[in-house]
Amino acid sequence: MAKEYSVDRQVFDEVMVPCYAPMQMIPIKGQGARVWDQDGREYIDFAGGIAVSCLGHCHPVMVDALKAQAEKIWHLSNVMTNEPALRLAKLLTEHSFAEKVFFANSGAEANEAALKLARRYAADKYGPEKSEIISFKQGFHGRTFFTVTVGGQEAYSDGFGPKPGAVTHLAYNDLASLAEHMSERTCAIMMEPLQGEGGIVSPTPEFVQGVRELCIKHNALLIFDEVQTGNGRTGDFYAYQGLGVTPDILSTAKSLGGGFPIGAMLTTTELAAYLKVGTHGSTYGGNPLACAVAEAVVSEVTKPEVLAGVRQREQWFREALATINAKYPVFAEIRGKGLLLGAALNEEWQGRARDILVAAGEEGLMVLVAGANVVRFTPSLVIDKADIDEGMARLERAIAKIYS
């Protein structure tokens, strides 16, 4: 019989690799947009596990799907396929431009697959010299060595030795710079259709359209990293659908499983053909448990009333933040779309986003930051109005305590 351990925050420091610095409290239960810690204290969750818990905690459709699949089959190697994976793939192709799907376990792995596909396509069709990948400063694409190098934040990629080559970082929303730099060597452009970790920065319509046109001009692929923006987060199932631009490859994860680890790369039949048998794989990719939960999540999120509800909740958040800011002017602007929102701090409050996060936690509210100057909100897509109101009341009290 396994030994039972009494665990508290101190145990983290004893046994865990110190690449995280978690809060002192340990959540043990969640329901909807509310979370309770070991001491029974309640929190309103405006963080959603960093844009993961799209249906909140323990949503019935997710719980039911997991229980049902847990009594059938848990794992199969990719020597075989399985019913939940096939149903989920069909669902994703029905709700996107894609014709083919590759399943992984995380956003980083989905992006790794996207980048490998782009490189393989370019090498096979045009030759090995067509290998350059362009991405954008302050972008974030995962923590594998390839994806963290493509991400435009050197603080995350420095210090691990020689980096993968042929990766160029340019300024986001600077179409002139991109046009000047691109050439026939460019294999692909990878971009977030709304930068998340980089500060909740939206692209201009001209920039997105221009990127698409430049890719066509130079025979380069357009990869949209929708790990954070996807699965209803912006009010469209995928953000590209609200931008009027269709990528060649799309990565998705985070909200895809609503909290169960899963990622996917979506693409066309033409491009998928370049990943022949043996060129890529994943032991757990397409896991029946993960796919069964994700199928339930996607079926729920794609309901028109849920997507329309995201846009309504965005307005509730914006109105509440404006009311707080009228009393305690700390925000310069509210950025983002749907329920991927960032409250950018004004000049007097530069560098104090984490102060607000900590103060909010003390008041029983979970929020995020996106850099030192942006407070980030990525709550459940179906969060109740009452929970929004209560969360905003707690945020106001937190800001009032540190306002000076």
Description:
The structure is a single chain. The chain has helices at 9-15, 48-51, 60-70, 83-94, 107-126, 145-150, 154-157, 175-181, 205-217, 269-272, 288-301, 304-327, 353-362, 385-402; strands at residues 27-31, 34-37, 42-45, 100-104, 132-136, 167-170, 186-191, 221-225, 249-252, 263-267, 331-337, 340-345, 365-366, 368-369, 374-377. It is α/β, with parallel strands linked by helices. It has two domains: 9-59 and 304-403, Alpha-Beta Complex (Aspartate Aminotransferase, domain 1), CATH 3.90.1150.10; 72-302, Type I PLP-dependent aspartate aminotransferase-like (Major domain) (Aspartate Aminotransferase, domain 2). It has a seven-stranded mixed beta sheet with strand order 4-10-9-8-7-5-6, sandwiched between helices. A four-stranded mixed beta sheet has the order 1-2-3-13. The chain has a four-stranded antiparallel beta sheet with strand order 11-12-15-14. A hairpin with a 2-residue loop joins strand 1 and strand 2 (34-37). Helix 3 (60-70) runs antiparallel to helix 11, helix 12 (304-327) runs parallel beside helix 14 and helix 13 (353-362) packs across helix 14 (385-402). The longest helix has 24 residues, at 304-327. The radius of gyration is 21 Å and the shape is globular.
